[in-house]
Amino acid sequence: MTHEIPRRNFLKAAGVGAAAIPFAGLVTPIAGKPMSGPLRVGLVGCGGRGTGAAMQALAADKDVILYAMGDLFADRLASSHASLQENFQNRVQVEESRRFTGFDAYQKVIAEVDVILFATPPAFRAAHIAAAVEAGLHVFCEKPVAVDAFGVRSVLETAKLARQKGLSLASGFCWRAAYGHRALYDRVHSGGIGEVRHVYATYLTGGLWYKERQPEWTDLEYQLRNWLYYTALSGDHITEQAIHSIDKIMWAKQDVPPVSATALGGRQVRTEAKWGNIYDHFGVLYEWEDGTMGHMQCRQQNGTHMENLDRIVGANGVAFIDGWANHFETTGDFPWKYAGPSNDMYQTEHDELFASIRAGAAMNQGEAMAHSTLAALMGRMSAYTGQRITWEQALNSQEKLTPDHWAFGPGVPAPIAQPGVTKFF
Ligand SMILES: NC(=O)c1ccc[n+]([C@@H]2O[C@H](COP(=O)([O-])OP(=O)(O)OC[C@H]3O[C@@H](n4cnc5c(N)ncnc54)[C@H](O)[C@@H]3O)[C@@H](O)[C@H]2O)c1
Q1: Is the pLDDT score of 25 beyond 80?
Q2: CB of 57 shorter than 6 A to ligand 1
Q3: Please, is 251 exposed, middle or buried when counting C-beta atoms within 10 Å of its C-beta (0-12, 13-18, 19+)?
Q4: Burial of 273 by CB count in 10 Å (0-12 exposed, 13-18 middle, 19+ buried)?
Q5: In the CATH hierarchy, which fold is given to the domain comprising 23-174?
Q6: How far from the centroid of its chain's Cα atoms is residue 218's Cα?
Q7: In this prediction, what percent of the chain has a pLDDT beyond 70?
Q8: What per-residue confidence (pLDDT) applies to 5?
């Protein structure tokens, strides 16, 4: 049974802002230039997610044309192009001369299009979106947006520039586009469980893919083909995968940044060199100035219990999400169960992005996506060093994981972090 939330409870619990804003400040329409007619779209990073994002962009708007593509590797670009062409025929107009490979492919794609989709490994994101916004493009970019604080600071600057230019900067934090999630967070922000006191999220899963080394691959090509397992490329799985759970913790708190993170983590099972230098489990306690605590556990270990749950404990009830089972409910004074439609959240992301571009009402999700990324990095920094890390420390961190210039060649990954030995800087 569903109970209406009395208005007085709504006002008491909304606390953080004047009103509960759907999507928690993630979507901020900004006056820009409405766009009509064909929109030329480019894709950079033509792997699984990038190919999916291009399909969603093509499905979102009948006048979207996929016009240019870029990937580090020709084989990845070719298979993505073939699959997109098979599905969308003449709306895929990527002539041979507009298929670019190598580290500078993104610059060449940027020069050809109006809207760009970025789905490379996270290490490249901050520089790529900075160049795209500088060139005046609307951007969709996958999460996470950085692997270190240098990247986060750059994205925060890019978000400001996009705002000044009236450009969209839309993120791949896809759960924010899922109707059941939106309904639940809306209810939480409207006082449905009272003041939020504790948030608990899990991303417990098994291992992911691995690509055997080929004789012709340099060290960096091998690492880039297996980018998930290198902190400098993926940010570690807390940043690459469990960030969805961290983003939902941030959503519960209406994107107010936590004060600190105190984390544990390690490499218990995935210990062979082929798994690079990332950990296989983390547990993080986030603390807010108002006393709220957020607890996140994530694991990538085969044969272990799998779950993706969120629980938000309020003064008068508990909100519960089973992300994989599409189940949303709240208990307490105003019990509620989501009975609305479910949607393809990936498609909704693009439907809303292209509608905003057409309307000249840019979606700027830049600050929220940078903040969720920093929250994940803060957890990693704490687990790697064994120290309590504050938001200010994380934001001002001088640890730089990405080079200024990328080139294939030899390279040994950084040593595996050891709490108490690895220094924060
Ligand atoms: N929102 C989601 O639910 C979701 C799901 C999956 C992946 N992702 C994110 O999408 C991104 C891509 O993940 P994926 O699963 O598609 O990985 P993938 O390995 O399948 O694809 C990445 C592609 O980027 C290419 N690439 C690497 N470096 C590049 C560079 N410098 N320039 C151009 N291309 C480059 C690779 O060759 C590859 O084709 C990651 O950030 C990941 O976290 C998000």
Answers
A1: no
A2: no
A3: buried
A4: exposed
A5: Rossmann fold (3.40.50)
A6: 29
A7: 93
A8: 72
Q: Please report the pLDDT score of residue 248 as a whole number.
A: 98
Q: 310 forms bridges with which residues in the sheet?
A: 201, 321
Q: How many C-beta atoms lie closer than 10 Å to residue 15's C-beta?
A: 12
CA of 243 to the centre of ligand 1 (A): 15
Does residue 37 come out as left (phi exceeding 0), alpha (psi in the -120 to 50 range) or beta?
left
187 lines ligand 1 (CB under 6 A): no
Among 207, 205, 145, 217, smallest CA distance to 377 is for 145
Question: Under 8 Å CB-to-CB from 76, ≥6 apart: which residues?
Answer: 46, 47
> Domain boundaries in the chain?
23-174
Strands (E), 188-316: 196-205, 260-266, 281-287, 293-300, 309-314
**In Å, how far from its chain's centre is CA 26?**
12
Whats the size of the chain, residue-wise? 425
**Mean pLDDT, range 287-298, rounded to an integer:** 98
Q: Determine the atom of ligand 1 nearest the C-alpha atom of 51.
A: 16
Which ranges of 331-365 does DSSP label H, i.e. alpha helix?
A: 345-359
Q: Point out the ligand 1 atom lying closest to the alpha carbon of residue 122.
A: 41
Q: Tokens 């020069």 label which residue? A: 111
What does the pLDDT look like over 299-352, one tens digit per residue? Answer: 999 999 999 999 999 999 999 999 889 999 999 989 999 999 999 999 999 999
Joined tokens for residue 358: 């057409």
Cα(44) to ligand 1 centroid in Å equals 9
Strand order in the sheet with 115-118: 99-101, 64-71, 39-44, 115-118, 138-141, 169-171
The residues, ordered by sequence, that sit 6+ positions from 204 with a Cβ below 8 Å of its Cβ are: 297, 298, 299, 304, 305, 306, 307, 308
Over residues 65-70, the mean pLDDT reads 98
Measured N-to-C along each axis, helices 345-359 and 48-60 cross at an angle, to the nearest 10 degrees, of 50
In 3-state terms the chain splits into helix, strand, coil percentages (rounded to 5) of 40, 20, 40
pLDDT at 20: 34
The answer to whether the predicted template modeling score (pTM) of the entire model surpasses 0.70 is: yes
